[in-house]
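Morning. Coffee machine broken again, so started the prediction first thing and wrote up yesterday's gels while waiting. Chain of 174 residues, entered below exactly as on the submission form.
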Amino acid sequence: MVRGSLLNQTLNFLFYILVQIILVKNLVLFDTAFCFIYVAFLLLLPLETGILIILLLGFITGFLVDVFYNSLGIHTAACVLLAYLRTHWIRLLTPTGGYEVGAKISLNSMGLRWFSSYCLVLIFIHHIALFFLELGGFGLFYFTLFKIITSTFLTFMVIVIVQYLSGSIYSRRV
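Came back before lunch.
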């Protein structure tokens, strides 16, 4: 069971990193909305993943994107922040009875309402860190805030589309 899960997470990691680097790197809408689908890897890790592993995976994910974007650590910093806050945000969203053992984070298993409240906040925080670190301060605040909001929604919509597509592909195989 653990081996299959590790293989599945490794394939997810490779999928999201390669899609980001090869396809989505140049996907920009109206020079304001950028898609950073690679954050889905960190968002969709199993619920029981320990914080140290999540932080390490956040560092590796951000570092790889930084290498290909030549962006000097801003993706690494934003991913480590997302990885750190993820555990705390999940704890705040935990229902009274808790989650089932082995519950997966996905649109199909958690539902659109929970998935949206979980992803949108973390993607928004990731993008705040990313864009303001890239800018090097708070100059052009309103334009940067507009970029953050539009990029958050674009990234979220692409993640939702991938979740729907992977859910429909999975249901056809079964």
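Residues 141-173 form the longest helix (33 residues). Going to sketch it on the whiteboard this afternoon.
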